[in-house]
Amino acid sequence: MKFNNMFTADDPMKLVQTILDTIFNAIIIITMLLCLFSLASSMSANLLDQTKEIGILRAMGFSKFRIKMLYFYEAFILVISSSMLGIMIGTTVAFTMVLQQVVFV
Question: How many CA atoms lie within 13 A of 21 on its CB side?
Answer without folding.
Answer: 6
